[in-house]
Amino acid sequence: MADEGWYFWHHAARSGLICDDEPVTTSIRNDLRNVAIIAHVDHGKTTLVDGMLRQTGTFRANETVVDRVLDSGDLEREKGITILAKQTTVDYDGVRLNIVDTPGHADFGGEVERSLLMVDAVLLLVDASEGPLPQTRYVLAKAMQRHLPVIVAINKIDRSDARPAQVLDEVYELFMDLGADEFQIEFPVIYTNAKAGTATGDLAQPGTELRPLLDLLVSVTPPPTYEDGHPLQLLVTNLSANDYVGRMAVGRIRNGTIRVGQRVTIVREEPEDPDGAVEPGRKITLTGSVTALQTAHGIDRVDITEAGPGDIVSVAGMPEVTIGDTLTDPADPRPLPRLDVDAPTLRMTFGVNSSPMAGKDGTFLTSRQIKARLEREVLGNVAIEVHPTESGEIFEVRGRGELQLAVLIEQMRREGFELTVSRPEVILRTEDGETQEPYERATIDIPPDYIGVVQQALAGRKGRLEQMSTDTDGRVRMEFIIPTRGLIGYRGQLLSDTRGTALMHQIGEGYGPWAGEVTHRTSGVLVADRAGESRAYALSSLVERSELFIGPSTEVYEGMVIGENSRPGDMDVNPNKSKALSKMRTQATDGDYRIHTPPRVITLESAIEFIAADELVEVTPTAIRLRKRLLTQHERRRASGAAYKAGVTTA
What we know:
Layout: H1 2-15, E1 26-28, E2 32-39, H2 45-55, H3 74-79, E3 86-92, E4 95-101, H4 109-116, E5 121-127, H5 134-145, E6 150-155, H6 164-177, E7 189-193, E8 198-200, H7 211-220, E9 225-227, E10 233-242, E11 246-255, E12 258-259, E13 263-269, E14 283-289, E15 292-297, E16 300-303, E17 306-307, E18 312-316, E19 326-328, E20 346-351, H8 367-380, E21 385-388, E22 394-399, H9 402-414, E23 419-421, E24 425-426, E25 429-431, E26 434-446, H10 451-460, E27 464-470, E28 476-483, H11 484-487, H12 490-497, E29 503-513, E30 525-528, E31 532-533, H13 536-542, E32 546-548, E33 555-556, E34 560-565, E35 571-573, H14 604-610, E36 615-619, E37 624-628, H15 633-646
Parallel strand pairs: 2-4, 2-5, 5-6, 6-7, 30-35
Antiparallel strand pairs: 1-9, 3-4, 7-8, 10-11, 10-19, 11-18, 12-17, 13-14, 13-19, 15-16, 15-18, 20-22, 20-23, 20-24, 21-22, 23-36, 25-26, 26-28, 26-29, 27-28, 30-34, 31-33, 32-34, 34-37, 36-37
């Protein structure tokens, strides 16, 4: 362990964490370590943190603790993934370990990038069966860019299909693909079973606790370094809110100390204003007092009066602070470089709900309320951008992927908002006169019976097969490079083509040349041509040639999409038609007309993937509906004729 600690101490000096050339005196804090846990989604990060908290005495013996205790959000628990990065602390042998649990999905990569600015090492978890997947590549590349020491943990070694030796070879290959130098490639390895709470450095000797992992974290992670006598420097990497003290800036103290009541300053460079009202490069200074100071203690936040270098704290008293600011000393302000994250690749429009059913479910309906909510989201999530459009009731929201934007929509829906959202579109850019679009690396895990159907579908979406391999369980793993446009709406088709047996993961691969037209949805939709309540009599004739999204006794309106047509082209239908009375009947009833095929359940994610360019998703707290942008049949025909004359085709 001592040799490994010396090695990574030397590596930290090489990476600039410790600068031997500076004439100032550099000190270290041996009682503190800051480490982030990074991995692909569902490889066991949060479960491993649970085990650390339990075995280090963070919880009382009689305390009831749920599994994945850090996934505290409703959406996180429902989806089984981490969405927001969270910090916790573990006290181990006189050393306090600040552990940052990061999201494992590529769409929330902004959380990972911010978290890496607060730590001095990373623990990379890799599934002992699945091996490195796209997000593993992404998070590892970000850690290597910052020259952070990496500890590799092969997790889930208890799986029946575990193959730790082959997975370790794949990890070495991944390091070499990412251009690791001779120091980075010599990473320590440990084998863990997060669910059972065990770790071992040798597979021949099964572990009984997580102590070997904690020892490795303490010895390998460089302790925080700081300059003696240096003024305060705290880079804000996140924002939180408190009901009593308001907005709180979260970040790591690089130098100096901070106390309650201390005066602090923010020096910020103003961004270029589109209206030209602000001179580019102009700096502004904001000064305030620290009214509250908090840090993590286990899974709780506790009030403290003072914090020093290396501590990760939450600071109240600066209501105008934003992510990327530096809290510094008013007498000697020395701001740090602002936070830089990857640019968004997708955009959607969020607008006011203009359907005939608007206002029946939600509390927040107006464009002013939607705009204020989106502005609050931008403050705490630097990976989201909001831009105005020509219409005051519609806003363009940009993000990393469909899931990130869908999570934002779901959060707004649960808060009581009503809105309409469009189909995602990629953000293009022009370089040297050439139009470029974003590409993604998609890894698809399927049974071998479906290789042909997947290749055929992705070929139509301009996908290029890069690699194909067979796992020990007989499943085939295919890796494609494909335009981001080609993956929009494909997940649902993939599950249908493979009868629900496929797994797909994707990660951004940068920009490349425009790939040409991409096949989206080839089928049309059924559109209600009048308002009313759907009848089983009418739906029984429609279900023979389509897949319905609604059942009987559902309120519909003109322009609402009620099903998917089995053929190309849209079809206007009357779902409200009742069986006519005759002289031989005294009443008309739907009782004899049963629809044996249940309607397709529309979720928010599947709705966003399904819609075409001329359609919208209507989102309310209690319902998700599909609709046409232009509700009346006359308006749609007139727009179609105008587009035909102009030579424009709609996807």
